[in-house]
């Protein structure tokens, strides 16, 4: 997680990864902690990250408690300042990396190979090891510099997934729109999910609704 607005996207992706039986290495940047506090009122603390993560994953996009029973036994948390952490090395086993949400500062850092923190370093490792890197950029409008950085990431093999909800899936709640974006992120990563209704084509001139 980087410091862009959009912590509900990250929560939806995390819930779906855990539901799919995936193990997760979680890195929360310093800026994203501030965003999480602003958007949810939750302070993400190193010493109490399990409790804070459970509380966060139980929140819906509307900020109200949900019914998700967060089993986080398959989550390993790494401090963003720990450049000696497992994900900083190409020998550390990983299928790939998702940056959700991705700020323009994070995008620039990864595109330029700055590796100023664990988030950027892990992304650089993911690219050099030719693993899947999915970048869910959350900003608008995008200036030319950021667009060039995104093209650089695309050229390097990353999948750029703007946090742009689709409305054809019949969304009726904010969470539906959040889940659509999260689902597209997971699609790019090759992770199965049922977060949104997929387009099935048209039958008889209208949407099938299936």
From TrEMBL:
Alphabetical list of Pfam families matching this protein: Flavoprotein (PF02441)
The name of this protein is Aromatic acid decarboxylase
Answer whether the UniProt record assigns the keyword Ribosomal protein to this protein.
Answer: no
Q: Which residues form the Flavoprotein domain?
A: 1-188
Q: What organism, scientifically named, is this protein from?
A: Streptomyces canus
List the keywords (alphabetical): Flavoprotein, FMN, Prenyltransferase, Transferase
Entry keyword annotation includes Flavoprotein: yes
- Molecular function via GO: prenyltransferase activity
